[in-house]
Amino acid sequence: MTTVRLYVTLKPSLLDSAGRTVASSLQNLGFDEVQNARIGKLIELKVENYDEARVTEMCKKLLANPVIEDYRFEVVP
Amino acid sequence: MKVAVIKFPGSNCDQDALYACREMGFGAEYVWHGESSLSGFDAVFLPGGFSYGDYLRCGAMASRAAIMDEVRRFAEEGRPVIGACNGFQVLCESGLLPGALMLNEDERFECQDVWLKCETNRSLWTAGVDKILRIPIAHGEGRFTCDDETLRQIQAENQIAFRYVSAEGERSAGANPNGSLDEIAGILNKKGNVLGLMPHPERAVNGITGNFDGRQILNALALVSV
């Protein structure tokens, strides 16, 4: 069994309004050094017979929306 | 005219859609998302709601449901398909419409009436719209976005169906409730038979709501020969 850790993030050009709210909350708590926050998703998959091409296909078919998101993944050692 | 109102787990405007269609004199029945046939139906209504709890992305899982292959085939035949709110998100996620819907710019769930300007009458769905429409919205993730090239394309191909405008029909940033790109409230596919929009025309068809403007859109179905 292989653990695949998959990160889905909003494309850098797009406004992340949720991230903006989090950054502003941190600033309100006194963390003035925070300039920006962007929120993504971490998806951990347990797969049998790991095949990189198959995971790429999962990203394309369901896990990420290419219009607004980028993705990358890694195998957890 | 018989309308298929598709029900996904988490749809919550399916009853409104069915009621609105029947109120306007059309036949309408629910079709469960696991079905694979639209045989006997003349139009498809993808209702609003929170299909699959909006998990992963709004409309993502619903757009991969079994019935959507059939909806895609149905749409490719040039037959009428409308998606309101979550239905719009499902259409974008399925690739039947370009772009995507993101979290509202002000991070708030917006529940209010908006005014819509119809930007093209050259489609089945918008041919009968002859005034500024007042239609309710109720969504947290309705900020339409797409890349520059897609935007140029949908502008050039007359695929922008509705824009948010002021009550007087003027374009203004203040009239845009969710930060949508180009103030886009609804778009069409190239053929004009698939319409997705964030506002809810099905909530504006009779005296109960004191608003009949949604009829201008849904009445398109009366003109479709079946």
Unreliable parts of chain B: none
Query: What fold name stands as the CATH topology of chain A?
Result: Mth169, Chain: A
Strand content of chain A: 25-35%
- Indicate the percent of residues in helices of chain B: 10-25%
User: Can you write the helix and strand succession of chain B as a string?
Assistant: EHEEHEHEEEEHEEEH
User: In the residues of chain A, how many domains can be counted?
Assistant: 1
Brief description of this entry?
The complex is a heterodimer of chains A (77) and B (226). Chain A is an alpha+beta fold and 77 residues long.
Give me the secondary-structure topology:
The complex is a heterodimer of chains A (77) and B (226).
Chain A: E1 2-10, H1 17-28, E2 41-47, H2 52-63, E3 69-76
Antiparallel strand pairs in A: 1-2, 1-3
Chain B: E1 2-7, H1 14-23, E2 27-32, E3 43-46, H2 66-76, E4 81-84, H3 86-94, E5 100-102, E6 110-118, E7 133-139, E8 143-145, H4 148-156, E9 160-165, E10 184-188, E11 194-197, H5 215-218
Parallel strand pairs in B: 1-2, 1-3, 3-4, 4-11
Antiparallel strand pairs in B: 5-8, 6-7, 6-9, 9-10, 10-11
